[in-house]
Amino acid sequence: MASGASSKRFSHLILRRHSPYVLLVLILIALGALSFGLITLRNSLVELGESGAKSLKLALETARSGDLISSQRHLSEAERAFTLGERWLHPFSWLPQAGAAIPGLSHGMTGQALFRVGQAGTRSASGLLSTLPTILMAQSAPAGTISMIDALERSGEAATKARAELEIANQSFRRVRPEVLPEAYRGRIERFGEVLPIGVALLDGYAEHQELFAELLGAHGPRVYLFLFQNNHELRATGGFIGSYALLDVNQGRIRRFFVDGIFNPDGQLKENIVPPKPIQKISAGWSLHDSNWFPDFPTSAEKAIFFYEKTGGPTVDGIITLTPEVLRRILELVGPVELPEYGATIDAENFIGIIQEEVEVKYDREENNPKKILGDLTEVLLQEFLSFSYPKRTWELGTTLATLLNEKHILLYSRHPEIESLIRGAGWSGEVLEAPHDYLSVIHTNINGYKTDGVIHESIIHESRIGSDGRVTDTVEITRKHEGGNTPYEWWNKVNADYLRVYVPRGAQLISAEGMTREFPEAPLDYAALGFRRDPDIAKEEEGMVVDEMTGTRISEDKGKTVFGNWVYVSPGESVTVRYKYVLPFRVLLDANDPEAASAYSVLYQKQSGSGGASLTARIRYSEALQPVWQTPGNLIPYQRTFETNTTLNKDFYWGAVFGRNPVEKKK
User: Fold this and answer.
1) pTM, whole model, 2 decimals?
2) Is the pLDDT of residue 129 over 90?
3) What is residue 97's predicted lDDT score, i.e. its pLDDT?
4) Topology at the third CATH level for domain 439-517+552-668
5) How far apart are CA 298 and CA 430, in angstroms?
């Protein structure tokens, strides 16, 4: 007894005196056991991972083919495999991130994180997949029998849950150590990790815009929308010449009426005489619906279109939706060739523009005198294709395509209801002229009697800002338009491009020079005052405040808080023209002379013209030796010899800039 008690006391004494060392030994033994266990389990874990990945791949393939039952089964199999692997490695989830630096532990932590990613990602996919039967049923049902509102609500609930699971997967992936992954898997896993935050952002966007979609579908009462088809091969301020229109009547997600008509049919019913903008007077003595999109700010032009439509006897509408031919072309990429037997044509994404233009310009029935009929017939067929999409891949691709077209301003939305317009503005789909904290540039083309030649014009823009030692900023804009027509099989692409060019810059900018344009001032075709034509107040305000620079003939005006430079520009087939503006900005990049650590920002917002194909943009900032950049927007901005430069395609709005402090060398001076 005494001996046993003494032994216990001795052991207790040893543990107390050497407890840190004993604890370390125990931890090392435990870690060794875990490492040995991992080596033993590695083959089983790899098999589980491969099994889960294979089931997930099969789930995606069967979902694309429309076999939703098999897809859900494969997703369940994938989730079981990932869940089992996660359970085996669950102890590693409790280790701090610092443990990833310990050999052996990094493999276990990475494996556990990947299984957790697979588990959460599979649950997310399964939740989204469960809503597809409702959506497909709504699409394939006869018009007016099933409401897309129900499908929207169910998919919204599923998207919220799926987003939560995907965020878990995204957070778990941050514990992955790519360097410990087998080389054969590393690239695919890293790419998957890059996709996760994009998926979270997409589901965030869906949730954010769900209320807007519900409003547009008439969730809170009947809605009537005026569709305007804008041909961007004949550019106008908000997208293109308005050649056709459609009327859509929707309530509770059910389409009650939809028809397409040529724009000159309602225009012929206009009884009021209104003075058009001066450049439009070159081709039209009066202002009407087909020329209503004069202002680049879409809400302003949309209100003009609504006014003209109602003046022709059309019903009061709740809003405007515009489309360019690019919308139909990209949809044709999804649905494939469309047969139009009446026209003896098979239309696809490649031949769409040529066939439609030829039918509208040349082949239409002169007696019927409805050249836009083919556009309405094609739109009706494509609408039927939308409603009969028979497998999920098309549903996903259609949603993605429409979102891209909205972001690129080939589709514009406007609502007369302030709460809905606020949602549209928040989504960035309003087409309005935006405010900018510093510099701003938007190049706006208006094709006036230039046929459809904008379809064969390639445009490049070079915008250079020079920041002097006194903080003054001088901008130079070069706009080059190259006409690639002349030898095409279509006459309307072989004509001279006639363009009234407007360049929107910060309000108060002072023009220094302008060159490359044509000096032209057309006379009014009528004595509008004597004939009693009414003047539009917005046009009157713009023109009454306009001044003409005597040296260059540039018209200088203001619109939506911007200074506007306007000129006529012509370019013949096979040739190119470069227009150049130089001007001083109304603000300076100044540093506080009393604060050696002071900094000042300079940024540029480039706003794309709605409906345009997207010019090639070279943006450049040159700064004096007095300045030293301390921050720049992420991206391809490389400082070289006191210059920042970036090159991009302006297919959507683009923003960049830098923050400058005082050059250390200048501080010493």
Assistant:
1) 0.78
2) no
3) 57
4) Immunoglobulin-like (2.60.40)
5) 7
